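Dear Dr. H.,

I hope your travels went smoothly. While you were away I took the liberty of generating a structure for the chain from your last submission, since the lab meeting agenda had it listed for discussion. I wanted you to have the full record in hand beforehand rather than looking at slides cold. The sequence, exactly as received, is reproduced here:
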Amino acid sequence: MKTVPEEPGEVRAGRHEGATGLITDVIEFSAVDGPGNRFVVFTQGCNLDCIACHNPYTINPCIDCGDCVVSCPSGALSLDAAGRVLWDAATCAGGDTCIDVCEYDSTPKARTLAVADLLARIRPAAPFLSGVTVSGGEATQQAGFVRALFTALKSDTGLARLTCFVDTNGDADNDTWQLLFPVMDAAMVDLKCLDDAIHRRMTGSGNERILASIRLLAAAGKLHEVRLLLLPGVNDADELLTRTGRWLSAVDPRMRVKVIGFRHHGVRPSVVPLREPSAEQRAHYADVLRAEGDFDLVVV
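The corresponding predicted structure, in token form, is as follows:
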């Protein structure tokens, strides 16, 4: 999607409402996707392939293979004359059979929505909201749409008080962040591993751009938190956590850091044995990190 360039910091109303994005789903009220009560938009498409992904059906756009159509128990899926998979939300019973049978880490339920469509959903909920978070998938893969949504929110007198957050894997370049900075209040960044080799085994990609994003966001005052998803025996060694804490402390010794213990829910089968850490292990992770900086640590 192309957007017309604007001057840095410029926010205009109106024309952004026609911008569209490929959206997996929305949650009208969430207490776990940023500070306060938030409206969350999940975009379809991600540039990482994480072994511990909890939303693997958001990784790729639907390729219209049709495998899910015959499996749909409610008859909500069909093929049009051009061979595209169509989803009838009114007929859908809300099950996940289509996702379960998909071999391409996708969903036929993702749909193209305009900013105006989302504003219509946000307005009735606004009195009860603290802000809006765009997640995924990977939000920065549709940065033009995210900018258009945030611009429209900040241009609307009834919605402008809502904070605009991005939930990101951080694998984005400087130009993407510069596009978002004028309208984005903050980002929450996942750091899967400080060690590049382990990061590649976990995600299929290196971490150079992610580390650069954390530094850039912190310097710009746009970093809400860094989240560490820890998997026993994969990325939780004490020495590695010590190095991670030391690196984060060099960026900001008072950084908000969220330690997240891996959970199996929603995760694809993996050739790498994945285990959930105990409460004692999660507390130990926090202790190791706390020794390296005066972090605002949260453990979940």
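Two observations you may find useful: Residues 238-251 form the longest helix (14 residues). Helices lie at 97-101, 115-125, 143-155, 174-180, 196-203, 208-219, 238-251, 279-290.

With kind regards,
E. W.
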